[in-house]
Amino acid sequence: MKKSNRSILLLVIILITGAICGNLIGESLKTKLQILSYGVKMGLNPTKLDLGVFNFTFGFSMNLNIAGVVGIILALLLYQRM
């Protein structure tokens, strides 16, 4: 794997980890700081393709709140310092 591909993969992993940690913190603190849990749910509803022999289901959804965005920003800053 080339160095640039490895750094892109590392960036994606760090950003996803930041979003997950931020969302977890936002959901756990939503009783004390409600603003952290405000967010949107976006994505593709699952679509099923039945070919008789094979069944494929395509779908993607993401729930991102304010704490998740803060987590992504902190993860990006961490990546830049590396």
From TrEMBL:
Keywords: Membrane, Transmembrane, Transmembrane helix. The chain crosses the membrane at residues 56-79. Pfam families: DUF4321. It comes from the Bacteria. InterPro entries: DUF4321. This is DUF4321 domain-containing protein. The lineage of its organism: Bacteria, Bacillati, Bacillota, Clostridia, Thermosediminibacterales.
